[in-house]
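Ticket #4471: structure output looks truncated?

Reporter: J.K.
Steps to reproduce: submitted the chain below (249 residues) through the standard prediction queue, then opened the result file.
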Amino acid sequence: MNDFPVAPTSRIDGSRENQALVLIAEDEPEIADILIAYLKRSGFQTAHALDGRRALEMHQALKPDLMLLDVLMPNLDGWMVLAEIRHRGNTPVIMLTAQDQDMDKLMGLRIGADDYIVKPFNPAEVVARTQAVLRRSIDYGHNTRRSVLRVDKFEIDIENHDVTVCIGAEKLPLALTVTEFKLLAQLAKAPKRVFSRAELLATCSPESDSLERTVDSHISKLRRKIEDLGLQGVPASIRGVGYRFGSIQ
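Returned output as attached by the reporter:
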């Protein structure tokens, strides 16, 4: 069904087709209104959902460029929404939460969040983080020259943010988060080189204050997805040093 009626619990602002669309899933209208104002001022379109279930409906219908997702929401919490978003594909997601705990951050990263902002926050920082994550998503905008990396059984389309894995005569899609894609592409550009965690963090999340161990979390999730396709050892861990792309056995 292509038509999506905007219900009273949702709001869409902006009109230019060349604006990126940010879906805000936040059950506190005052916070949502502030974010909408700042995002519009920076040239974004916005859509607002007041609960988790509505957020999933709007994500399916509107296909936003990025999602700002509150953790504590009615009907479905942010973790459940994030898990479903990741099941569907690789929409960039920034988590918004009042919980400033390492375990909560690591949970978000394991499920597939691309960034994590703790309340209370400066709305200007949220806009800056949004712009940074969209830049890292590679296919934001239309000025990137098409480039496809082919390493072993992998084809990595930099412009379209697509990864396919050749298994026999089949080409199987590999759905990754923005950060997972960035890590895989960085490793694939120099498949024999070993990258330190600090290098990968600086390349794939330069604006973040994340710790180097969060790279391990992203790499682990990336490796599991590749293993689900029947391939082992990609990316490869180099004890005491970091990671390299790895070789297919």
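Triage note (M.O.): checked the attachment and the full token line is present. Residues 1-18, 139-146 have pLDDT under 50 and may be disordered.
Status: closed, working as intended.
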